Amino acid sequence: MFPRPFKSLPILLLACSFLPSSWSSAGAAEHGGLLLKGTPRETSWLVLESGKPGPVVLIVGGMHGNEPAGSRAAGQIMHWPIKRGKLVVLPRANATGLDAGIRYVPNSPGELRDLNRNFPKTGEKNEARGDLAREIWTLAKRFEPDWVLDLHEGSDFHQINRKSVGSSIIPTKGEGMDEAVADALRAVNRTIEDPRKKLVRLRYPVNGSLARAAHERLGAVSMILETTVKDQPLSLRIRQHRLMVHAILGRLGMSGKDVPPLAPYKADGSGPLRIAIYDAGGTGRTSARSLEVALAPMGKTLVRRIGPPEIRAGQLSRFDLVVFPGGSGSRQAAALEKTGREKVRRFVEEGGGYLGVCAGSYLAARNYDWSLKIVDGRTVDTRNGHWRRGRGTVKMELTEKGRLILGDYPEQVDVRYANGPIFAPAQDDAIEDFQALAHFRTELAENGARVGAMIDTPAILSGNLGKGRVLCISPHPESTKALHGMVRRAALWLGKGN
Ligand SMILES: [Zn+2]
Questions:
Q1: Same domain, yes or no, for 290 and 246?
Q2: How far apart are the CA of 208 and the centre of ligand 1, in A?
Q3: Residue 244 lies in a domain
Q4: Predicted confidence (pLDDT) per residue in 259-271, tens digit
Q5: How far is the CA of 143 from the centre of ligand 1 (A)?
Q6: Alpha helix (H) ranges present in 313-418?
Q7: Measured between alpha carbons, how far is 311 from 343 in angstroms, rounded to an integer?
């Protein structure tokens, strides 16, 4: 079913020291290299060898820097176990664009700025244009892939807005293509309830795209996979790419029955600190991202976005801690559903860490029907809209224990506050009492909130539940660069368990 015999591979060794080998299948080997090494646009590629004959599949993510889901999915897929053939993965094609969050390659002349228009065009010279496309094209020619999967995102759902290619698969032609597209559509569409948001098959990739050039010049069966950015959390879009790629690799006999988990299994406590950041229903638009930014300089961490389906499926067991960001605690609880909430609670009881920020702290509280009840704290002065005490800068002061865990901030510090919970002891005998790590020293009291209710209450608190640790932050240290160290220290402490 493949257009050409499989190619042998030049041996080039670069061990992936970051991830435990238990993640990849036995006998598999990883190696890779860098494109545009030593330049600002430097980006890494990786080859996963099964050691068994089979198709060569090139997977590319992040060609457009404002389409992060494909890049993140590719970064996970490159560590999947494969049963035969090899995967060549370039997860961050336009690395500087991804870092800047823009579609184009930064500092490129206008006619070269769209990376996915710079590959050899139909009927023109067999040459890619611009340094980055040239190196990607050289990589493609070197491995002569049988299949090319280029992971993108559109701005809107194609079925709702025909001007956008969002939520579609755009294939070329070739043996096995129809079946592969059908499998991918089936796998992803059964997870989508709204019929207008289901993915559809579209016609032929645009001129100058890698997918089209790889088909026309290298004989590859290739396609562009598109999710939709609009109103959909990153975790969902990454999941859709994972589902589609898994289905296609399954059709090629390369993947197992189940989609591989979000993070590696860690039996012995070694390896990176694995952090799951919830970003789905009830999460503020930029909340998950700003926590990611605060956690980024930690090194030796593996950060994954997570949503209710993964949590309900038990995937938290693959992580050391979960982070619930700002937004709406009750809406986060509703999105998790009862099963998801029970999974979070059990995760903590069994030794996982829980970091709640603002809404995530409401979610952890003892006193709502919908809350997780993983900390012995209840929220006060929330009725009649009093929870809307305001947004602005307040002062908080760390306690002695707070300074031990979160870092030595001896003075009162300014921190952004946005309607976070005001905590008091809930006095539930079944849960250990919480300890205050910081107190508010000034307050906001808008919309009828009780004056004086906030001052000297815990701004940050910690507690134990079973073998796990909980840390609730009412304000937003992730919004202030000078306080990012506090967030990182919290994550490290939570990762240790009791
Ligand atoms: Zn794109």
A1: no
A2: 12
A3: yes
A4: 999 998 777 767 8
A5: 23
A6: 329-349, 359-364, 400-406
A7: 7
